[in-house]
Amino acid sequence: MQKMKDKKIIDASGKTLGRVSTEIAMSLMGKTSASFERNVYSGFPVEVLNASKIKITPKKLDEVVHKRYSGYRGGLRILKGTETVEKKGFKELIRLAVYQMLPDNKIRREMMKNLKIEN
Asked: What is the pTM of this model?
């Protein structure tokens, strides 16, 4: 078991969704450190502040699309970004963006556990 490093704090106020999400994803993957290994979790725990103050236009928020599948036939739900923000807030919008940017493997769950988003 490796020793946990200091956590990285990112202030999201005034930044766009994509810029914040890529910064978070790079830190979670560990690509910002010199000891990066693709098959081992070597990233930092990341804490995001001021998620509700993120800069996003209403038009862009309407274009953002997320999929949710229940597992049953006909159970695919396609949600717009506006619906996600109304129900769960900007925290969920950032979380979904970061989740899609991380590699689709067993380490993704561990990376997402080290992400903490605050309003």
From this structure: 0.90
